[in-house]
Write a structure and sequence with these properties.
Elements: H1 19-23, E1 29-30, H2 32-39, H3 43-52, E2 67-68, H4 69-78
Antiparallel strand pairs: 1-2
């Protein structure tokens, strides 16, 4: 079974107990580009993770997906896989 690697470790990535420092005062719902910047991944990765059920997105009527801050914090807490 294919399992994508989440948040591959990098030497310059801070420890995951500082999620507030990483997200700062970001809004509760982030655009794909904002979320990708926080997670240091591409927007394509976010879409793929959403399709695989690894991350949840909110989709307003006729709009682009928005990623809840809590989902990003969860991914940051879980760290690398």
């Amino acid at each position: 079974m294919f399992r994508p690697r989440l948040l591959k470790a990098a030497k310059d990535v801070p420890m995951r107990d500082d999620t507030h420092e990483i997200l700062g005062d970001e809004p509760k719902l982030l655009t794909p580009s904002q979320a990708a910047r926080v997670l240091r991944r591409s927007t394509r990765s976010l879409r793929r993770w959403e399709q695989l059920g690894l991350i949840r997105a909110v989709r307003p009527a006729g709009g682009a997906p928005l990623y809840p801050r809590a989902e990003l914090e969860r991914l940051l807490r879980e760290g690398t896989r």
